[in-house]
Amino acid sequence: MIKSPLNYIGGKYRLLPQLLPLFPSEIGTFIDLFAGGLDVALNVNARHIVCNDINHYVTGLFEYLRGTDIEHIVGEVNRTIARYGLSKENTEGYYALRSDYNRTHSPLLLFLLICFGFNHQVRFNARGEFNNPFGRARSSYNERTEHHLRQTHRRLQQIELRTGNFRDFSTDVLVPGDFVYADPPYLISCGSYNDGKRGFEGWTATDDKHLFGLLDNLDRRGIRFALSNVLHHKGAVNEPLVQWADHYHIHRLRASYANSNYQARASETEEVLITNY
């Protein structure tokens, strides 16, 4: 498995051993409508891979990684770490880096902010400023991160990147044999990526409904899809999702959560993959 160097909220790396066997064995064009940190796309087997996400800062970072020589990237990473004195303990260096990123929006600086930020989160405020605090004593760039970076760089050469709202993504050219994967923000488990306060639109019941319509349209055209979501979370139930999913196949997953008590979280959340095949 290739692990993205970004620890994206809602990332599916830990679920890949369950997800990938549920995907079609042969895929023409693979579309990831909510690509995030690319954990799924980096590991899917398809002739053509297209990744879309609304967060232009993240897709811009991946564009930079894909279009830049990897040795140059690694060299710049190490020189920038030295320039700011970045470490697990240097608070001032991290906030100097964050200030410079918010002034320049350099993709390289964004990558290092993610490496050294709290829980490696990708978080912006409504003004488009990166605002994740320092990950003291825990977050860093290390040999393992560099390994993930190099693997991702190689795989990115085979991936087409797009930026935009899923509503504006045209599926008109897709044909049977293609496959669409959707891992949207989950309506009943709101996080910093879908609360509408980070410079991007929040996720609402209307968005769920629109996505259901898009997937229904794919089904009518004989195009396969898979939707990741949760049916219930901490006592809340997404009733429209439950009713819509009843027309398709529901695969229940053994949830895995980083930085949390597995038994407590797993018992509170029912994570599923919904497919039309």
Folded structure, characterized:
This protein folds into two domains: about 15-55 and about 165-275, Rossmann fold, CATH 3.40.50.150; about 60-155, Orthogonal Bundle (Adenine-specific Methyltransferase, domain 2). It has nine helices and eight strands. The chain has helices at about 15-20, 55-65, 70-85, 90-105, 105-115, 145-155, 205-220, 240-245, 260-270, and strands spanning about 30, 50-55, 160-165, 180, 225-235, 235, 250, 270-275. Strands 1, 2, 3, 4, 5, 6, 7 and 8 form an eight-stranded mixed sheet that branches. α2 (about 55-65) packs across α5 and α4 (about 90-105) packs antiparallel against α5 (about 105-115). The chain is globular.
Gyration radius, in Å: 19 Å
Q: Assess the beta-strand content as a share of residues.
A: 15-25%
**How many H/I helical runs?**
9
User: Major sheet, described briefly?
Assistant: 8 strands, mixed
Shape: globular
Q: What is the CATH architecture assignment of the largest domain?
A: 3-Layer(aba) Sandwich
Q: Provide the succession of SSEs.
A: HEEHHHHHEEHEEHEHE
Q: Tally of extended strands? A: 8
Rounded mean pLDDT score: 92
Report helical residue fraction. 25-40%
- The SS-based structural class is alpha/beta
Number of domains: 2
Query: Ranges with pLDDT <50 over ≥5 residues?
Result: 257-266
Oligomeric state of shown chains: single chain
What CATH first level of the largest domain would be assigned? Answer: Alpha Beta
Distance from first to last alpha carbon = 25 Å
Quickly list its features.
277 residues; alpha/beta; Rossmann fold; Adenine-specific Methyltransferase, domain 2; eight-stranded mixed β-sheet; 8 strands; 15% strand; globular
